[in-house]
């Protein structure tokens, strides 16, 4: 979406630019969620702590993706998730109040945010389908084929968590398909 120069500078005034070190938290589970994040550079992980104390990865966001606990963001509620930088990451953060004001001043962005939300929701739907439909081997091979750079970029223990595997099982699969 292209905007006139005067609206582009206005747009920038609503965001906070931030940098996060590898493993640094952008949002902590149990904390109020007032912001969502646009990934300028880097990769972040959305996860929660399971009852057994293990971390379950639900999602990742790479460059040009948005991430937040969207339910908590919408209501200023308590986050059910943590968001952590997988690598050094640069984001643009916007609060719900700033987003509301931005959309008042630049209504053309409603269509953009709608499209981004649709894209994220569609990706979630496809991931759920793959989790239900594919065997573990098929799921791993699908990710290798369709997201090779991503599978190399993300630590294997996080990829295993995202795919619903143990790190040991993922290691066995990797050995099987690399040799």
UniProtKB/TrEMBL annotation:
Cited InterPro entries: cNMP-bd_dom (IPR000595), cNMP-bd_dom_sf (IPR018490), RmlC-like_jellyroll (IPR014710)
The protein's superkingdom reads Bacteria
Task: Report the residue ranges that make up the Cyclic nucleotide-binding domain in this protein.
Answer: 18-105
Alphabetized Gene3D superfamilies for the sequence: Jelly Rolls
Q: What is this protein called?
A: Crp/Fnr family transcriptional regulator
Q: Give the organism the record lists.
A: Chitinophaga parva
């Amino acid at each position: 979406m292209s905007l006139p120069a005067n609206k582009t500078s206005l747009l920038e005034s609503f965001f906070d630019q931030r940098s996060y070190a590898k493993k640094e938290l952008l949002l902590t589970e149990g904390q109020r969620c007032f912001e969502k994040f646009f990934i300028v550079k880097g990769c972040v992980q959305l996860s929660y702590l399971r009852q057994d104390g293990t971390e379950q990865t639900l999602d990742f966001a790479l460059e040009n993706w948005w991430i937040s606990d969207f339910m908590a963001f919408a209501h200023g509620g308590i986050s059910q998730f943590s968001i952590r930088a997988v690598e050094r990451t640069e984001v643009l953060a916007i609060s719900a109040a700033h987003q509301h004001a931005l959309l008042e001043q630049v209504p053309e962005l409603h269509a953009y945010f709608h499209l981004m939300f649709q894209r994220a929701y569609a990706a979630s739907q496809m991931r759920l389908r793959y989790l239900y439909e594919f065997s573990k081997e098929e799921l791993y091979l699908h990710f290798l084929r369709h997201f090779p750079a991503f599978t190399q970029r993300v630590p294997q223990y996080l990829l295993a968590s995202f795919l619903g595997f143990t790190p040991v099982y993922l290691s066995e699969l990797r050995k099987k398909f690399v040799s």
